[in-house]
Write a structure and sequence with these properties.
The complex is a heterodimer of chains A (733) and B (276). In chain A, 50% of the residues lie in helices and 20% in strands. With 733 residues, chain A is an alpha+beta fold. In chain A, the strands form 5 sheets. Chain A has a 5-stranded antiparallel beta sheet with strand order 2-1-5-4-3. In chain A, strands 7-6-10-9-8 form a 5-stranded antiparallel beta sheet, with helices on both faces. A 5-stranded mixed beta sheet of chain A has the order 12-14-15-17-16, covered by helices on one side. Chain A starts with a helix and ends with a helix. Chain B has 2 domains: 140 residues, Periplasmic binding protein-like II (D-Maltodextrin-Binding Protein, domain 2, 3-Layer(aba) Sandwich); 131 residues, D-Maltodextrin-Binding Protein, domain 2. In chain B, strands 1, 2, 3, 4, 6, 7, 8, 9, 11 and 12 form a 10-stranded mixed beta sheet that branches. In chain B, helix 2 links the parallel strand 1 and strand 2. The chains are: A alpha+beta (733), B alpha/beta (276). Chains A and B meet through helix 1, helix 2, strand 2 and strand 5 of A and helix 1, strand 1, helix 2, strand 2 and helix 3 of B.
């Protein structure tokens, strides 16, 4: 910059000098010329005057004297002519014969005024020498004085001036350059260098110390101050940005989603730790997807639709199968060009699993509701069939024509009741009667039964843990679970194999830990085979009702469904592991019992009793059956068709009624309400609750059972079971 | 001395004329110019005498016969003087009136030991054959010839040389010839130049501080001119325009009168009556 300014200023000075010198010399030359002309005119006039007398008297001395008047360095010639232009005298004398300019001769032919002529090397002045005899007489030209002034002197002088000007200009220029350099260095370069240092420091990340260099209150000082403020602002902004970035970064890293950014071509350029945790360091997003996906098409679709959402199967870092929900968004710059993509992934594997389970349980719920409803009505029918078949049996003897059909009806009705109960138990609609039992005992008892249905080529192996706690369970249902699973195992091993039954505490196995709820202890029962295994597809549906892989007619499709329901009803879990051609293992987890209760022994065969029994049931056949069953056993049976009439009868009879058999589900007043009403009439009323099915019934019955002297009997019931129940209530009531 | 006094007076008059323009001078005057020989030799003194006698002032100056003729032709003077006769170029309306006699003389520097010169030597000098005074028993120096010579025409002295020395031929100009404006100047040049040589008129030359050479052994004096021993006698003229002022006529009449001639003679000039 210094050089540029110096050159610029030098140029200005030089141009100014040249112009001023030119103007000055022109002016000077003009004024000098003017002066010279005036001087020349004056001198030639003086010469003409001085020469007058010499000419008049033809006196050379006088002429000489006149010539000497004009002796001057710039006078190169002084001549005195006669009127006929003959030179009389000359200075220098050698130029006596120098002829006058023809223009002058011509001029004086017609004029008497002095004349000067500009010649190449100077000025030629001509003045007439007058002789005037008297005032009145006209002056007569008696000769001419000529004076030549050289202009070389002027030119030399101008040359000298120009040279002097050039020298002065050069000196001034040099001085100006030096001065300007000093000035620029002090006023501009030094502060600018300081500023430059500050900029360099700032580039290196160091905030300049001072606001402005000391003593600079000019624009550069302002600039320095502004720069300092700018630096400070930038630093603050940078800090804020860094903090913001840190926050965003930590959010980016901590978020449960796998977040990533892609370049224009779909290559991953940034990913968070969750992403790496899930998929490792992959380069292309499509690499982890199980299905082939055209990446370019995918990205194009994302661009055209502004976003893309996919749910796909993917392979995790360790090769495990994951279900991911992928969201992808295009990034654009300010002019709308695609700069890349960003998006996130959610591992929805577990969610999917839960959804599946939920769906399954909903399905089961639906089937259960259907089946339960059916079973309820079916039970009412069976109650009548069973009861009257028994009555027929009772009233006839073996060999009677009705005895055998009645027996067949009875057996069939029993089977129907069993099936109905199975359906109800499978759909949780049956009241399960649990008590603390030893799972080992149940397994041992089951093996006895299994040996009859399992072929010899299948080895039954048990591995029972001794010190496991009892579980709260219905032994018969658990037995059915074991049986069902064993039968399936048998079917999986048509060529023989090994059936393994194991028991143990759940906490002792790693796999079970995940299945445990926080505060419960579980006992585990595993039943495994060495069969052909179960395919993944089948595994998904294996607990579905009516799902079967067996040949038509061989399976009901309810076996594992019932197993699943029983275990669920017991508050437990079941899962399975299966590998093709290696085998299948079912694990059952059951909650442990709090305390041990002794099993109650049921009383024996004396079914007869006495007392008045009020039967409140909306089903006429059930009411009639109860009377027909109980009256022969010695009871007086009163019948009421609904709650209202039942209560009325009870109020009238009050203490006369020993027991009320109360149906839970009735139109109008329900069993629970009737029970409450009866209790208000007589607090210690003995009630036998009876139901074929009730969805809310289980909870309702539980409450009622807790409140007082009530027992429960499920429909359909046999003569024996109702007799025992009635007797039991009356004896304990 | 007289001349100087006159010049001083003249200068004073001019000076007063310049500084006191209101002062009245005699309005009646005559002006004249021309032949330096006449001017120096007699005319100035004659004019002075004439003024004394008539009160008519006559301003006289030299310049040479040719200047006189030119001045007269252009009307700058009332009459002129000449020391040569009419030449072919001279204007017709000018009358040449002889008023006195003169003689062509050869002058050298006072210090020059040369005394005598022959017509032939004169011719040789002008022709450049003789260039050194030694040959003429003069000083040991080259001869420097001064000559009143004009481009416009013949000066009086030059015309006389042509006629009397070269018998009608023009004298050649040699490298050592210096042409000057008039004979008055020539005489002054010779006064100042030791090796100088020039031809002039007796009437004026006698008044200069120069040495006149004998021609063929005869020294020019009024006597030798009058008695024709000096060979180069010539007339002096006044030139008067045919339509001249009355004052000019009167003056010419005076000059030609007995009084006038006597006065001329008294000046040491050969008057008309001396030769008649």
């Amino acid at each position: 910059m210094q050089t540029k300014v110096s050159v610029f200023i030098t140029l200005i000075i030089v141009v100014t000098s040249v112009i001023s010198t030119y103007l000055f010399t022109t002016q000077y030359k003009q004024s000098k010329e003017k002066g010279r002309i005036e001087r020349g005119a004056a001198l030639s006039y003086a010469l003409s005057k001085a020469a007058e007398e010499g000419l008049l008297n033809e006196n050379l001395d006088l002429l000489k004297k006149a010539s000497s008047v004009v002796k001057a360095p710039d006078v190169t010639l002084a001549q005195v002519y006669l009127s006929i232009w003959e030179a009389v005298d000359s200075y220098p004398l050698g130029k006596l014969k120098e002829q006058p300019d023809s223009r002058a001769v011509g001029h004086f032919r017609s004029s008497g005024s002095p004349l000067y002529l500009k010649t190449e090397d100077g000025y030629d002045f001509y003045s007439p020498v007058y002789f005037k005899a008297s005032e009145s007489s006209s002056p007569a030209i008696i000769g001419f004085a000529r004076l030549v002034l050289s202009s070389s002197a002027i030119q030399n002088e101008i040359k000298r001036i120009i040279i002097k000007n050039i020298i002065v200009s050069v000196i001034i220029t040099l001085l100006a350059i030096v001065f300007i350099n000093i000035l620029i260095r002090r006023l501009v370069i030094k502060p600018v260098m300081t500023l430059h240092e500050s900029v360099s420091l700032f580039k290196a990340g160091i905030l300049p110390e001072a606001e402005a260099p000391a003593g600079s209150s000019d624009e550069i000082g302002d600039l320095s101050t502004e720069f300092y403020r700018m630096c400070r602002t930038i630093k603050e902004e940078e800090k804020r940005l860094v903090e913001s970035d840190k926050r965003i970064r930590s959010l980016f890293e901590r978020v449960e989603h796998a977040v990533f950014r892609l370049d224009q071509n779909g290559a991953i350029i940034e990913k968070n730790s969750r992403f790496i945790e899930l998929f490792g360091n992959i380069t292309w997003l499509c690499d982890m997807l199980m299905e082939d996906l055209d990446a370019a098409e995918c990205l194009a679709k994302t661009v055209s639709e502004k976003a893309m959402h996919l749910e796909k199967k993917a392979v995790g870092k360790k090769g495990e199968e994951l279900v991911i929900s992928l969201a992808l968004y295009p990034d654009t710059d300010s002019s709308g060009n695609i700069t890349g993509f960003d998006g996130y992934l959610i591992d929805v594997t577990e969610k999917k699993r839960l959804e599946e389970r939920l769906m399954r349980s909903q399905k089961m719920e639906a089937v259960g509701t259907l089946a339960g409803g059916m079973a309820h009505d079916f039970n009412n029918l069976l109650t009548a069939i069973l009861g009257y078949a028994e009555i027929i049996q009772m009233k006839s003897k073996e060999g009677d024509p009705f005895y055998k059909p009645a027996t067949i009806i009875y057996d069939a009705a029993i089977k129907g009741a069993d099936l109905s109960r199975m359906v109800l138990s499978a759909t949780r609609k049956e009241k399960i009667e649990t008590r603390p039992v030893s799972i080992n005992d149940i397994v041992i008892n089951s093996i006895e039964l299994l040996k009859r249905s399992i072929p010899k080529n299948i080895e039954i192996v048990t591995s029972l843990s001794d010190d496991i706690p009892h579980v709260n369970a219905d032994p018969s249902q658990l037995q059915q679970v074991i049986m069902n699973l064993a039968v399936n195992a048998r079917d999986a091993m048509p060529d023989g194999g090994k059936l393994l039954l194991e028991t143990g505490e759940a906490g002792k196995e790693k796999n079970a830990a995940a299945m445990q709820t926080a505060n419960s202890d579980f006992v585990k029962l595993s039943i495994s085979d060495t069969g052909k295994g179960i395919s993944i597809e089948t595994q998904k549906r294996i607990f579905d009702p009516f799902f079967t892989t067996k040949d038509m007619g061989k399976g009901t499709g309810l076996g594992l469904y019932i197993v699943h329901s029983i275990i669920n009803n017991h508050g437990g879990y079941i899962n399975l592991y299966s590998e093709p051609f290696i085998g299948t293992k079912f694990n059952i987890y059951l909650p442990t019992a709090d305390s041990m209760e002794n099993e109650k022994a049921l009383d024996a065969e004396d079914l007869r009793g006495a007392g008045t029994v009020l039967v409140i049931d909306d089903e006429p056949i059930v009411r009639e059956l109860c009377r027909d069953l109980l009256e022969p056993l010695g009871y007086t049976v009163l019948l009421a068709e609904d709650g209202y009439s039942g209560i009325k009868v009870f109020r009238e009879m009050k203490d006369g009624i020993a027991l009320v058999i109360l149906d839970m589900i009735m139109p109008g007043m329900g069993g629970a309400e009737v029970y409450q009403a009866l209790k208000t009439i007589r607090n210690d009323v003995a009630v036998l609750l009876c139901s074929g099915y009730s969805e809310n019934g289980l909870a309702g019955i539980d409450n009622l059972l807790k409140q007082g002297t009530a027992r429960f009997i499920g429909k359909p019931f046999s003569r024996r079971s109702i007799a025992l129940a009635v007797k039991d209530v009356l004896s304990n009531g | 001395m007289k001349t100087q006094l006159y010049r001083a007076v003249l200068f004073l008059i001019l000076f007063l004329h310049i500084i006191k323009p209101s002062e009245v001078f005699p309005t009646d005057h005559l002006t004249a110019s021309g032949c330096s020989v006449s001017n120096t030799g007699y005319l100035t003194e004659l004019a002075s005498e004439y003024e004394k006698r008539t009160g008519m002032r006559i301003y006289v100056r030299g310049g040479g016969s040719l200047v006189g003729i030119e001045d007269l032709r252009s009307g700058r003077v009332d009459f002129a003087a000449a020391c040569r006769g009419r030449s072919a170029d001279d204007p017709e309306d000018i009358q040449f009136i002889q008023v006195a006699w003169d003689a062509l003389v050869f002058i050298v520097h006072k210090s020059n030991p040369a005394e005598n010169i022959s017509i032939k030597s004169v011719r040789d000098i002008y022709s450049g054959k003789i260039t050194d005074w030694k040959k003429l028993k003069g000083s040991n120096s080259p001869i420097k010839i001064f000559l009143a010579r004009h481009k416009k025409g013949l000066s009086g002295v030059e015309a006389s040389i042509k006629d009397m020395v070269f018998n009608g031929d023009n004298p050649a100009e040699t490298p050592n010839t210096v042409s000057v404006a008039s004979t008055g100047i020539v005489e002054q040049m010779v006064e100042d130049t030791p090796g100088g040589f020039a031809a002039s008129g007796f009437t004026s030359a006698r008044k200069r501080t120069v040495k006149m050479l004998k021609v063929d052994g005869v020294y020019p004096t009024t006597a030798t001119i009058i008695n024709n021993r000096y060979p180069l006698k010539r007339p002096l003229y006044l030139l008067v325009p045919k339509q001249s002022k009355p004052g000019v006529r009167r003056f010419v009449d005076f000059v030609l009168s007995r009084e006038g001639q006597r006065f001329i003679g008294s000046l040491g000039v050969v008057s008309l009556s001396d030769i008649r």
